[in-house]
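Recall that a protein's primary structure is simply its ordered list of amino acids. Everything else, from secondary elements to tertiary packing, is in principle encoded there. The following example makes that idea concrete.
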Amino acid sequence: MGPIVPPLVPPYETVGDGPHRVMAVHGWFSDRAAYAAMLPHVDRRAFTYVLPDLRGYGEARDVPGRFTTSEAGRDLLALADHLGWDRFSLIGHSMGGAVVQRVVAAAPHRVRRLVGVAPVPASGVPMEGEQWELFASAAERPENRRAIIDLTTGNRHPAAWLDLMVRHSVRHSDAKAFRAWLDSWALEDFHEEISGAEVPVRVVVGAHDPALTADVMRQTWLRWYADAELIELPCAGHYPADETPLELVRAVEDFIAADA
């Protein structure tokens, strides 16, 4: 396993200056730009959003590490300490959904509200055979990244959008880190560490996502959290921030704003 790498204060972007502090964590295919289409529409007076780059991505593309969700959870707590944030809400997309749950497992008292967007469950995402090979080879094969994005958004979107997503993914991630991340978010099961947690949770999924579906969330997230609810966006797949940004902003902010 090797030694534990010390926590890192990851590079980040800040949007807004409101009193409710929110950390938004990206997924496997993007850096913090995963939320770019949402940002013009967020309530900057009510919320302060901080968007970090996980190790291996964006401005942290060349930062070494083990590239695990548990390591990233420690990094996010180091970032919160750096910002002087005692309590804050969390948003996690896809792989980022597993990362933010590591924060809940480590420091549940610091999390106000948690939103998972097409989120990976704390039990991982079991894959085998051709499906595993498709994902495992995506680090070195851009065509695999394209196939995964197309599949998980319901084979509905223009070729130019798929190409744009792939180009950004390749340019803003380190291939070795990208591959290492897969073993963590897909294979690790830490659901017993968050089971019964009382932090209010909203899970947002896209109706056109064939993998991380509403049924999957009912069998995982909604079973393990004491106060959890589910919203399905009818016009989205696995990337609601890009596909339906206005609907996602409402789904996020209506929920986190309910914490007085």
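The longest helix spans residues 69-83. The domain at 12-256 is CATH 3.40.50.1820 (Rossmann fold).
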